[in-house]
Amino acid sequence: MKYSGILMFGPPASGKGSQAQLLASNLGFYHFSTGEMFRSLKEKKRLNKLEQEILDTMTIDQGNYVSDKQTLALFKQRVYELPIEQKLLLDGIPRTLAQVNPLNKIVDVIALIYIQVPEQELIQRSLKRGRVDDGEGVVKKRLKIYQELTHPILEKYSSRIIEINGNQTREEVQNEIIRKLRENKII
After folding, report:
1. What is the mean pLDDT of the chain?
2. Phi first, then psi: what are they for 47, rounded to 5°?
3. Is the pLDDT of residue 85 over 70?
4. Do 91 and 16 meet the contact criterion of CB atoms below 8 Å apart?
5. Class assignment of domain 3-183?
6. Under a CB-based contact definition with an 8 Å cutoff, are residues 163 and 104 in contact?
7. Distance CA 76, CA 55 (A)
8. N or C: which end of the chain has fewer CB within 10 A?
9. How far, in Å, are 55, 95, 102, 112 from residue 8 at the CA level?
10. What is the model's pTM?
11. Structure confidence by residue, pLDDT tens digits, 3-44
12. Mean of pLDDT values over 121-125
């Protein structure tokens, strides 16, 4: 058996994390954020071997991605802690084409919510967040990496993409997502 899930997709600062949190509370899905998964390692007191290895080599603060192998290993470790009947909202995985097939062995992807926002708006949003890892140079590097590595994943899920205008208020984006999920008979 596999988990059932929806991919939250969009460039950094597109609002996918916020929208996933809202959807999770509105629909009873579990919001699984790989960014939070990695950031939480810095706060954790006791790390297993894999977690320590990731933390020792992690360069997320410079805008780089954790390796596919490490990401998938930690994802599996975390997701298998959840009951199989728990529906997932996946935010941050897959990030590369190499992660698609391993993910598909674990999760039945029923939809891909693609939040689209103009690049200049993404830069402004990132700078306003004030995270230590969101300087303008880091933001531009993340957007470039996104275009090169992550954007091609859309082709793998082309029949399941639900496009969302992310350049509206948080509530309008959420309403559009829910409306389109209903129209596509996903919820």
Report:
1. 90
2. -110, 140
3. yes
4. yes
5. alpha beta
6. no
7. 17
8. N
9. 25, 11, 17, 6
10. 0.88
11. 999 999 998 889 999 999 999 999 999 999 998 999 898 888
12. 90
